[in-house]
Amino acid sequence: MSTARRPDTTRSAGRVGGQSFPVEELGHGPFEMAAPVENMPRAAEFSVTTHVKGENGMPERDHKLGERVADGIGRRALFKATSIAAGGIVLGTSNPAFAAGQPTEGALPTATPDTQANYHTDGSVSYARGLVTTSDKNIKYRGRWKEQTSGSVYGYYESGLEFRFTGTSLSVTLEETCRLLYSVDGGGFQRNINANDTLTIASGLERGAHSARIYSEYQQSFPKIKHFQIDRGENTKPLPKRSTMEFVGDSISVGYIGAGLVNSLENSFTFRTPELLDLSHNTVAFGGIAVAAGSGGPDATGMVSRYTKLSEYIPGESGVPAWGTSQYVPDYLVINLGTNDPSTGTKAPNFKPAYMTFLENARTYYPDAMIFAMTPFNGAHRNEISETVSVRNSTGDAKVIHIETSGWIDVATETTDGTHPTVAAQDKISHKLAASLQGYLSAQH
User: Fold this and answer.
1) pLDDT range class, residue 406, cuts 50, 70, 90
2) How far apart (Å, rounded) are the C-alpha atoms in residues 17 and 15?
3) Is 157 exposed, middle or buried (0-12, 13-18, 19+ CB in 10 A)?
4) Residue 276: exposure state from Cβ atoms within 10 A (0-12, 13-18, ≥19)
5) What is the 8-class DSSP label of residue 128?
6) Number of other CB atoms surrounding residue 201 within 10 Å
7) pTM of the entire structure?
8) Under 8 Å between Cβ of 353 and 290
């Protein structure tokens, strides 16, 4: 099968986002534990730090920014991957038909004149009044989303969605304030850390087909989407199929750069790498999390168990709903964990068996996925990760690949604190990882 670089769209000269970025921006802090000193090159030891969280375990605020210099990621991809299976759009299991992107009579609020959908033979769906429900079959949800009986959808971790529409404008109506990244027609991503009510995504577009993508901007963004608005009588259209890539990690994966800096998913290699490879993507990451239970913080449950929970850590949480991994199945899984697991002390031996369990579980969840296990950029647990991958390979699982990252960045000069890569280093990692993955992706053709 061939891969479309981007949905077949008409470029526009319209205004996207209808916003200018404020001089002051407040963001989340790291939720990251300092990497063990023994995992660092000697020259980096001086810069290892432990960040201070804010009140009640919530992330610390970013400092005021005198200037924001952050280019979008709308540049042409440097690599092109071959599409294999289409990434599924799946929501909750309470309504299987809705999860498959098809409306179900009676499962959600009955359609009104505002929301009445008209289905066409070319796969498009039109709306007389332009109000697009979240159950529209042409909206593809990437990552963890859950539909509500009200008809809204809630997003968790660093989830995203994408769809095509016709007309000259697009807006999204939200239930609560959240943090969003969004892009129209493959342009640079706009960042809004206080998105609320009805947010204009684009206006004044040329008539014709357009594409839109919306992402949770950071950990704990929790987008709660009620519906979308396009021009009256216009429609949504099917997207070309693209492979999907999910990343699993900690604060480095979620885009934490450092205190007083712009911490955002758009800065992370987990966002930039699949953009280079022209893949649909999502991230399951949270600052400070380890692989093994009992390490890391503030979430000490360990990714080995947190991965099957719907949501990332929330202070004071209890009864976190389970997440059925069959609800969203990526074609590729990229793991970057281990920075927050101690390498010495009584808890050090917990890492390897927990990592093995995580890989075994991942294969059970995703029988056909290619799984990439990265060495953390500070070299933490390199040997254990390599050995664990070798064990998986020896059992006949050839689709688990170790990605060695040694030398990709200099943690002494290309991190802000001895652990977290700078924006430039994240971009450097993105290109190196894209080059490393390219051969494996092409081999799936």
Assistant:
1) very high
2) 7
3) buried
4) buried
5) T
6) 25
7) 0.79
8) no
